[in-house]
Amino acid sequence: MGVSGSGKTTVGTMLGEKLGLPYRDGDDLHPQTNIDKMARGEALDDDDRWPWLKLVGQWLHQQESGGIIGCSALKRSYRDLIRSAAPGVKFVHVHGTEELLSERMNARTGHFMPPSLLKSQLETLEPLGADEDGLVVDIADSPKVIAQKAADWLTG
Asked: Is the pLDDT at 39 greater than 90, yes or no?
């Protein structure tokens, strides 16, 4: 989980390879209307997100041997919805400073999410609660180090 530009896809792909689990980019489950809205620089609201989050939870539930999905899961209520479909899900929150996130978003090409939406995502973000099964990792580390930390935590 994490805001756009945090490395969810890169880390998730590496983590899936390390653990021998399928990886899915949650962005692939967004309806075109959500993608178009974000591409126009408009932040999604809860009504936009609920159907998408249900698909995220369903995909995880369907992975009988486990799976990894990159998904923002910015609010506790979003994570609760995912957990309702996939009990036992664990969250790895890839997080960093606004400056580093902005730098990464501005450097990438071909992604529908414009850097202008980073601030709204950070304002929406609710950190993992002490009672949530999750790990926070700093994106200042390399994706390889992050994936290893997450793998160690998940298998430890």
From this structure: no
